[in-house]
Specification:
Blueprint: E1 17-18, E2 21-22, E3 24-31, E4 34-41, E5 56-57, E6 60-61, E7 69-70, E8 73-74, H1 80-84, H2 90-105, H3 116-129, H4 132-135
Antiparallel strand pairs: 1-2, 3-4, 5-6, 7-8
Length: about 140
């Protein structure tokens, strides 16, 4: 739910990890009869700052971020830059996601412009999901 811990809190079974450290964070919520899936891929460094989050933000208690305890310390998540030695180009990441999704789902994938009905739906969804009411709902 909206009050659960951050998506990089701890690796869950089946999640993408490297050397026991979480690379991809995801969260799900069942809302109004639908399943909402969110995923994040860590590209660059700086995620160790998440480890400092053990506080109350805007009235919502957050869990400590990071992976398994190692020598009494929480392991930080890992980034693609750390795994590969450099961050991949954004265009390479976009192509990899498109290739992966099209390979799994099939179909004829191509780039194009949004139609007016698609653009209207996009605007309505963007307004809903960027609102403070949506973020802090209970």
């Amino acid at each position: 739910g909206p009050d659960s811990g951050p998506c990089f809190d701890e690796p869950a079974p089946g999640e993408v990890t490297v050397a026991g450290r979480k690379l991809v964070g995801s969260a799900q919520a069942r809302l109004e009869g639908a399943l909402l899936q969110h995923g994040s891929l860590l590209i660059g460094p700086g995620q160790d700052r998440l480890l400092a989050l053990d506080t109350t933000l805007a009235g919502v208690r957050t869990a400590r971020c990071g992976g398994e305890l190692e020598n009494g310390r929480v392991q930080a998540p890992i980034s693609l830059e750390e795994v590969l030695g450099q961050a991949p180009a954004w265009s390479d990441l976009v192509e990899a996601v498109i290739s992966g999704l099209s390979g799994v789902t099939g179909g004829d994938w191509h780039r194009g412009e949004l139609t007016e009905p698609e653009r209207a739906k996009y605007m309505a969804l963007a307004e809903r999901y960027t609102s403070a009411e949506w973020t802090w709902r209970r």
